[in-house]
Design goal:
The structure holds two protein chains of two kinds.
Chain A (H helix, E strand, L loop, with lengths): L1 H22 L2 H4 L12 H7 L4 H10 L1 H4 L6 E6 L1 H5 L9 H9 L2 E3 L10 E5 L5 E5 L3 E2 L2 E10 L2 E6 L9 H7 L5 H8 L7 H9 L6 H4 L2 H5 L10 E6 L1 H11 L8 H13 L3 E2 L11 E3 L5 E3 L5 E8 L2 E6 L6 H4 L3 E4 L5 E3 L7 E7 L5 E7 L8 E9 L3 E7 L9 E11 L5 E7 L3 E3 L7 E7 L4 E10 L10 E3 L1 E6 L3
Parallel strand pairs in A: 1-7, 8-13
Antiparallel strand pairs in A: 1-2, 3-4, 4-5, 5-6, 6-7, 8-9, 10-11, 12-13, 14-26, 15-18, 16-17, 17-25, 18-24, 19-23, 19-26, 20-21, 20-22, 20-24
Chain B lengths: L1 H33 L15 H15 L3 H10 L4 E3 L5 H8 L12 H22 L5 H26 L2 E2 L19 E2 L1 H13 L16 E2 L2 E2 L7 H12 L2 H12 L8 H6 L47 H6 E7 L9 H5 L8 E3 L1 H8 L11 H7 E4 L2 E4 L22 E7 H14 L3 H8 L2 H5 L26 E3 L2 E3 L8 H4 L11 H17 L5 H12 L2 H14 L5 H8 L13
Antiparallel strand pairs in B: 1-7, 2-3, 4-5, 6-10, 8-9, 11-12
The chains are: A alpha+beta, B mainly alpha.
InterPro entries (chain A): Adhesion/Biosynth-related (IPR050904), FAS1_dom_sf (IPR036378), FAS1_domain (IPR000782)
Protein name (chain A): Fasciclin domain-containing protein
Pfam families (chain A): Fasciclin (PF02469)
């Protein structure tokens, strides 16, 4: 009897053990690793932390506490209360400003102070980019307590508030009343330099890319409203700016005096922006604009301290004098970039060549050989020409034939319905293309009364059907403007 | 009495309960464990007949394809033609900079041994099948030779990459036993080569599967004929590594003459002969231009159906078969997944590897016969610039739209693992012939072919010219004459540089070394990114006992991209022992 009971007990204990073991649920236990930090979110931590309580109050006031309690990952740079006391109250005066201020301290995704990159630019919720340098510096603030964490991200306590800065374009907007150059830049919202500008403005879709299309300067030079990149802009004082514009006016004559002014101003200040933020000691002696103009900055003309902005630096400067020889850039037309050809059915006679000259330098050119017709024509066009005289050169390489042939250049003209050409600006004489000459050859001059485009520039073969004599070849054309 | 009965009842109840518990638990266990899996085969369901044997062969190749990524990365990233990108992992950078840490997954030899042990197991079972008369001796010979040769190929790769490796030919159940170096001692590369040669030479069947073979079929839209390792090519390679140059040339020449007895002209004149350009139709593998527009760079034949590029892009058609000797397809219809899209594509993949500046300048230091200052096989075909990135294209032609260069369909990840083709065969043959003192033949194969090299310009009667008048393996008849009429089997052969539309490579100084340099250089231009470069450099550097041959090339790659490690890597590679990866099992 006793022994039986003991067997019962054994069975009971066994069953109970199995039941108990299966009761424990490792899945439920997986999150509980004993770290209290992981049970609270960033919003809760920051609003309760006394060290940053002033910032915490703003977070609640602006509604960012809702965002910081979401289950995404965030990084918060929380300024200490002492740092908050230093903030200019004007920057926090409106709800919008306040919201922007708080947003400028928060980034989506968690950034630890320990990273593989020495420096990264991180995008804050304000849309501004701040540089996270080493493991202690965020923009110009120093991290005093790094890598605190909660369940949805990390926060760093910093000794200086990250007050959002204007970007270059916003700064220029704030200067329109005092600065002629700024006023002109903003006026390019309405004024067009090129036909394509007006098309871009009328078709721009709000949102992506649109702000670079709404202003002729942002479209053609650099988008100074872009937070992702960094730029340097030299903002000339009114006298220096006006003098520099006036100097260029004779070269940009158009039928309308107003447009001449618009164009001249544009051609002056398109060379004042550069795609990198140069600190004063980093400015090279000669900067080259994206239009190929060499600009020498006389640092003694710089007024005051550089204006550090969220996407670059503005220097206020009395004047930037660019000599006309530098300002008036040479126009180069590549032979292989023809816009059309005649007769239109003879594409097979055109050779776009990849070649190497005797010095071992690669070049691309165009050659027409054995077309079997006379007057084979390659057409080109060019924009941004000045109202001045141009010296014309070509580099035309006759390397596969053994005989000299001739070709000529025609500048300008409008094709009439009957096929004739009228209003030709200049028709050059037939010129020999000698064998094996790799130098530029001077052809002569032509003069433009008005600045603008030439829509038809033609390279014309000899008037003979004899193959070998009716060839064309062109590496490039060079139009060098003459200073009046 | 009552008590007794009650006791009895209780007794029997308890015993019954116990019994039931045991019976139920045991019984249910047994049932549970004995269910036959529906997607796996058990031991007694395999190796029953010829079809099971075929399934084993196909299974090995399926496993083998898993080595594709490693093969290309180790043989190219360690050498001078391929380099890392902004996206490359630290592990890839280690490979490129010859600073491989123990836990680097690319250096893990385990995958190779998985294939090898599978081969061992299959070979053992083939022996059993033969003994039990499950298939004929002829059927056995073909399959045994295939798997045996494949195993030797994998071992050759192991030797090249790791130097000292265990050579295991008996089936072992536990993969991790390979680690046990007391049981399986690691033997040096040179001894490994001896063992591989001994084994591979004893294989009685060295041709491809014959056309009647049940492994020679169409499946999933692919003909399987070129799936399998070419045993003669392998024997050639093993002998070339070993320094048996005449023997190597014989094996290579056997493959070059594969179609010599074919009844159809196209097969006999075109297969593996590096045929001249079809200038009118451009239905060829030559670098070519639209006829009469040879001076027009935009007339380059650059599409997926004509010209040099098409060999990487076309399906397994007649023309494809004139070039390819061994190639395995990847397709989204079957496993394994194509690894190359991730490695190379910057629009759909991870873009982990790109051409080095050194490779780009190698191509651009050549001149085409139309005067263009580059080798179109480089900047036009082997790589191209997409979104500002230099992208290796050979593996992407089947994946990208040929015009827009966007993925034609991101889910159709087709492609190939390129293993052996006629150009590689010819270059290897030339390398062997050159070392066998047949410099003129080597130079002809490399440049413009036998006919051009043995021609006497202006001679109409070609009876005694345009041929080598030499014995096998140096017998070439490339005669093309009309009075009297001759069409030698090699008359269409145009040489590697001939087909690539390049000027000939000059021979400077010592013809042996100069021609060998030209051949290795041509290997880079023609075969870049097909997984040959590192082994080419190792083989020649070992042969010349000159580590600088290899070290300088890797130095050039790193130096040209401004890598600060370049000099220290060169110093490291001057020691042969540092050429080999750590044999660290993971």
């Amino acid at each position: 009897m006793i022994s039986l009971k003991s067997k019962y007990k054994k069975l009971f204990v066994g069953v109970l053990t199995i039941a108990l073991v299966s009761c424990s649920n490792p899945w439920e236990d997986r999150q509980n690793n004993g770290d209290a930090n992981l049970s609270v979110n960033l919003s809760e931590v920051i609003t309760k932390k006394t060290e940053v309580s002033k910032f915490g109050a703003l977070v609640v006031q602006t509604g960012y506490d809702k965002i910081l309690s979401e289950s995404k990952s965030y990084t918060v740079f929380a300024p200490t209360n002492e740092a908050m006391d230093q903030v200019d109250p004007a920057k926090l005066s409106t709800p919008e400003a306040l919201s922007l201020f708080v947003a400028n301290h928060i980034a989506l995704t968690a950034y630890s102070s320990i990273r593989t990159q020495a420096s990264i630019k991180i995008k804050m919720l304000s849309g501004k980019y701040l540089e996270f340098k080493g493991n202690t510096l965020i923009s110009d603030a120093t991290i005093v307590t790094a890598d605190q964490y909660a369940k949805n991200g990390v926060y760093h306590i910093i000794n200086k508030a990250l007050t959002p800065k204007l970007n270059i374009w916003q700064y220029i907007n704030s200067q329109v009343n005092s600065s002629l150059m700024s006023k002109y830049l903003i006026s390019l919202k309405e004024l067009n330099i090129y036909k394509a500008d007006s098309i871009a403005k009328s078709t721009a879709i709000p949102g992506a890319m649109s702000d670079s299309l709404t202003n002729s300067y942002l479209r053609n030079v650099y988008n100074l409203n872009n937070e992702k990149n960094s730029y340097t802009l030299f903002l000339m004082e009114n006298d220096g700016y006006t003098a520099e514009v006036d100097k260029l006016k004779p070269y940009l004559t158009t039928p309308k005096a107003d447009f001449t002014t618009t164009l001249t101003s544009y051609f002056t200040i398109r060379d004042m922006a550069f795609p990198k933020a140069y600190l004063p000691n980093e400015i090279p002696s000669v900067l080259t604009s994206r239009f190929g103009v060499n600009v020498t900055i006389d640092k003694t003309q710089i007024i005051g301290e550089p204006i550090i902005l969220s996407n670059g630096i503005i220097y206020r400067i009395k004047k930037v004098i660019v000599p006309l020889v530098d300002r008036l850039v040479t126009t180069k037309i590549e032979g292989e970039k023809n816009s059309s050809f005649l007769p239109t059915n003879l594409r097979s006679k055109i050779f776009y060549r990849d070649k190497q000259d005797p010095l071992g330098i690669n070049y691309n050119d165009i050659m027409v050989q054995n077309p079997g017709v006379s007057l084979f024509t390659l057409n080109y066009n060019s924009g941004n020409l000045y109202s001045t005289t141009y010296k014309v050169y070509w580099r035309a390489i006759n390397d596969v034939q053994t005989n000299v042939f001739q070709q000529r250049l025609r500048i300008g003209g409008v094709v009439q319905a009957d096929g004739t050409i009228k209003d030709v600006i200049k028709l050059f004489d037939y010129t020999d293309v000698a064998v094996g000459v790799y130098n530029e050859v001077y052809l002569g001059d032509f003069t433009l009364e008005q600045a603008g485009n030439i829509d038809l520039i033609s390279l014309i073969a000899a008037n003979t059907t004899t193959n070998g004599n009716n060839s064309l070849t062109l590496d490039y054309l060079k139009f060098v403007p003459v200073i009046k | 009495m009552i008590t007794t009965i009650r006791t009895k009842i209780k007794n029997s109840t308890v015993v019954g309960l116990w019994l039931m518990t045991i019976v139920v638990s045991l019984h249910s266990c047994q049932d549970y464990l004995d269910v036959q899996p529906q997607d796996k085969l058990s031991g007694d369901q395999v190796y029953r007949n010829i079809y099971d044997a075929d399934a084993a062969v196909v299974g090995i190749y399926g496993k083998f394809m898993g080595l594709a990524e490693k093969y290309v990365i180790l043989n190219e990233m360690r050498a001078d033609l391929m380099t890392t990108t902004r996206n490359s992992s630290p592990y890839l950078k280690e490979i490129s900079e010859h600073n491989v840490s123990a836990n680097n997954p690319y250096a893990n030899p385990k995958d190779y041994y998985e294939v090898i042990l599978n081969c061992n197991d299959v070979l053992k079972n083939f022996d059993i099948m033969l003994a039990n008369k499950k298939f004929t001796q002829a059927q056995y010979n073909q399959r045994y030779a295939d798997i045996g040769a494949l195993r030797s190929w994998v071992y050759l790769q192991l030797g090249i990459q790791y130097g000292n490796v265990p050579y295991i030919t008996d089936p072992i159940e536990n993969l991790d036993d390979v680690k046990n170096s007391s049981k399986y001692p690691r033997i040096p590369f040179d001894q490994l080569l001896d063992k591989l040669l001994t084994f591979t030479t004893t294989l009685t069947y060295t041709s491809p599967y014959d056309s009647a073979n049940t492994l020679n079929i169409n499946v999933d839209g692919y003909n399987t004929a070129k799936f399998f390792v070419n045993k003669e090519c392998l024997l050639g390679d093993l002998n070339l590594w070993k320094g048996n140059y005449n023997e190597a040339a014989k094996h290579y020449k056997t493959v070059m003459e594969t179609s010599t007895n074919s009844g159809t002209d196209t097969e006999r004149y075109d297969n593996y002969r590096i045929k001249y350009a079809e200038v009118a139709t451009n239905n060829d593998f030559a670098v070519g231009y639209v006829r009469y527009s040879e001076q027009d760079a935009r007339s380059l034949i650059n599409n997926n159906t004509q010209g040099w590029r098409s060999m990487f892009a076309r399906s397994r058609d007649v023309l494809w078969n004139t070039e390819w000797i061994w190639s395995l397809p990847f397709d989204s219809k079957f496993s394994p997944k194509n690894p190359f899209i991730d490695i190379f594509s910057n629009r759909s993949g991870l873009y982990l590897a790109k051409p080095s500046q050194q490779a780009i300048s190698l191509w651009n230091n050549n001149k085409q016969r139309n005067g263009f200052p580059y080798d179109a096989r480089g900047q036009k075909f082997s790589y191209t610039v997409i979104d500002g990135d230099e992208v290796i294209m050979k593996y992407l032609y089947k994946f990208l739209n040929p015009v827009t260069l966007n993925p034609a369909d991101a889910f159709q990840t087709g492609g190939d693992w390129f293993l052996y083709r006629a150009a590689k065969l010819h270059l290897r043959y030339a390398e062997a012939a050159n070392r066998d003192n047949k410099h003129k033949i080597a130079d002809a194969i490399l440049n413009f072919g036998i006919k051009a090299a043995y021609d006497v310009p202006g001679t109409i009667d070609v009876t005694n010219i345009q041929k080598t008048k030499d014995a096998f393996p140096y017998d070439f008849d490339a005669r093309q004459g009309d009075f009297p009429f001759y069409r030698g089997n090699w008359y269409r052969g145009t040489g590697i540089r001939g087909r690539a539309y390049l000027e000939r490579a000059p021979v400077v100084g010592d013809s042996l070394i100069s021609i060998e340099n030209n051949i290795i250089n041509e290997d880079a231009l023609e075969l870049a990114y097909e997984g040959n470069r590192w082994e080419d450099l190792v083989r020649v550097a070992l042969r010349r006992k000159n580590p600088a041959f290899l070290a300088d090339k890797v130095y050039d790659k790193l130096n040209k991209e401004g890598n600060s490690q370049a000099s220290s890597v060169r110093t490291k590679l001057m020691n042969v022992n540092n050429w080999y990866l750590p044999f660290t099992w993971q």
